[in-house]
Predict the structure.
Amino acid sequence: MTRHRFALGLGLGLAIIGIPLVLALLGPLFVGEPGPRTTSFTLGDGHWLGTDFVGRDVWQQVLHGGRTVVVSALTATALAYTVAVPVGLVSALTRRCWLEELLMRPLDVLLAVPSLLLILLVASVFSPGSAGLALLVALVNVPDAARIVRAAAGEAAARPAVEALRMQGETWWRMAVGYVGRSMLRTLAADAGTRLTGVLYLVATAAFLGVGVAPDAADWAVMVDRNRTGLFVQPWAVVVPALLIVALTTGANLLFDAALANDRRGDRGRSRSRAGSEARP
């Protein structure tokens, strides 16, 4: 039953997330030359999904508009963990209180500022492109991710096995990565699914507000914003990009849930094997 649920979750997650990923990453290669602009918010005339608010073909805009959202979200998530994991591990394993305070207190201050507000404040001073938007979104995700890493690593670091490693003279790297890091993988996987959803929300919301992209850019979030005035006249210009963003978040969570379910199944199998070997004379 568990194996069936894992296969079902994995297949469903891949099916849901595969469509927006393929469109986002490969769409620009097959979009071709943009055609002439026609009347705004029309259906038919060779346009599969109609035209947008300035008369551009919606299907071409969909093929062009996903790469920025997907690449920015994945880059921001990866950058956030690249900073948060070392900071959290050092804070959890160090025996120097001043070092822990030095690493975590500035992050606590940053955590007190609402994420979207901080992005808008920085964007009001500078004009970040898509790369700058990814850096900003990564920055606002570091404090929360670092606290989760610190909590998970602190629980693992308090185990007798870590103290035994210290007494044996093992290196900090082996304790941090070899034991503590592996012990918190499940927690990080669960957090990664939720965090990727939050990052996609931030990237899409910032693009919706015009941060990091041009007002008429081919971007799924921008398409939702700019075409909403014609929702009841030509709904595909809003519905299709919105559904693609929802599919990204839903598919990512299903994949992470399936991975966690498979990991739990493996742990139960190993536990039964150990119990069986201990029961044999």
Remarks:
- Residues 1 and 173 are 39 Å apart (CA to CA).
- The radius of gyration is 23 Å.
